[in-house]
């Protein structure tokens, strides 16, 4: 069977400052990237403890890069832009390094796609973050989301959408840039065990596909946007005010998650 791991940098143990995530300088974020790779490798090990012949693809979902490809063991590295969207290949989706959605209380480094510009996303009248957006995409294609590793608020968010999901907590949020962290070894042990349980319970975790067409999407930014530039990118957008727009589509791929 083949598994897909979506990664992000903000949820890894030891990462609790935007200085570690917004930069492209490896000297600033390198230690976090190394830890994220350890956590991904632990997740892969957990999967393979149950499914020894498993193939695993890993998406680097962090905008400025969250993984050094050579640090991965037993899996295939993909950039998010190179993901082929062929869900028929996959048995399940897992998350490693995940953070909570923008506006979550005491959630370290919480944001929704852009920590600098997006105040919130809503889909069919429900506030969503990166977890629900991609998990629903998988679910619309029949693929269950079975595991999440990240901070404690991200784990709660995942359980809100997928109550049956297995989770592993890498840190406990105390504020936007504050957390109590597990050690690297403790986080990896928890992830390895959680991923193993998730694969063992695969049949018990249904695909998450609560958001069905028509998809009514709303976004609000922190700062006013350029109306003409927005309409050039999204000609079917309905401008609500200088920071908010909505769009409606029957094609999930037309939403701004991709």
Overview of the molecule:
- The chain has 258 residues and is α/β, with parallel strands linked by helices.
- The protein is built from 5 helices and 12 strands.
- The radius of gyration is 18 Å and the shape is globular.
- 43% of the residues are buried.
- The mean pLDDT is 97.
Summarize it:
Helices cover 27% and strands 27% of the residues. The protein is an alpha/beta fold.
Distance between the amino and carboxyl termini: 25 Å
Q: Give the tally of β-strands.
A: 12
What is the spatial order of strands in the main beta sheet? 3-2-1-4-7-8-9
Q: Poorly predicted ranges (pLDDT <50, ≥5 residues)? A: none
Main sheet, how many strands, which sense, barrel? 7 strands, mixed
User: In terms of structural class, how would the helical and strand content be classed?
Assistant: alpha/beta
Instruction: Report Rg.
Output: 18 Å
Task: Please provide the ordered H/E string of secondary-structure elements.
Answer: EHEEEEEHEHEEHEHEE
Quaternary state of this entry equals single chain
SS summary, helix count: 5
Mean pLDDT: 97
What gross morphology would you assign? Answer: globular
How are the elements arranged and paired?
Layout: E1 2-7, H1 26-50, E2 55-60, E3 76-79, E4 92-98, E5 118-123, E6 126-128, H2 130-140, E7 145-151, H3 152-161, E8 166-175, E9 178-181, H4 184-200, E10 215-221, H5 227-233, E11 238-241, E12 244-249
Parallel strand pairs: 1-2, 1-4, 2-3, 4-7, 7-8
Antiparallel strand pairs: 5-6, 5-10, 8-9, 10-12, 11-12
């Amino acid at each position: 069977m083949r598994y897909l791991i979506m990664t992000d940098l903000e949820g890894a143990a030891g990462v609790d400052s935007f200085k570690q995530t917004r930069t492209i300088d490896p000297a600033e974020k390198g230690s976090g990237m190394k830890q994220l790779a350890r956590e991904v490798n632990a997740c892969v090990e957990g999967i393979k403890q149950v499914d020894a012949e498993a193939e695993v693809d890993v998406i680097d979902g962090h905008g400025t890069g969250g993984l050094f490809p050579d640090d991965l063991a037993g899996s295939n590295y993909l950039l998010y832009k190179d993901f082929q969207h062929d869900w028929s290949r996959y048995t399940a989706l897992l998350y490693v390094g995940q953070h909570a959605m923008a506006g979550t209380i005491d959630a370290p480094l919480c944001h929704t796609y852009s920590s600098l510009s997006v105040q919130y996303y809503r889909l069919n009248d429900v506030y969503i973050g990166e977890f629900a957006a991609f998990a629903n995409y998988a679910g619309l294609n029949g693929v269950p989301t079975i595991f999440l590793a990240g901070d404690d608020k991200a784990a709660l968010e995942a359980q809100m959408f997928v109550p049956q999901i297995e989770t592993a907590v890498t840190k406990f949020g105390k504020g936007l840039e504050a957390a109590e962290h597990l050690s690297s070894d403790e986080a990896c042990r928890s992830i390895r065990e959680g991923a193993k349980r998730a694969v063992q319970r695969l049949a018990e975790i249904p695909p998450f596909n609560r958001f069905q067409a028509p998809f009514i999407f709303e976004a609000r930014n922190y700062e006013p946007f350029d109306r003409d530039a927005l309409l050039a990118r999204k000609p079917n957008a309905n401008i609500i005010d200088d920071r908010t727009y909505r769009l409606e589509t029957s094609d999930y791929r037309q939403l701004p998650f991709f």
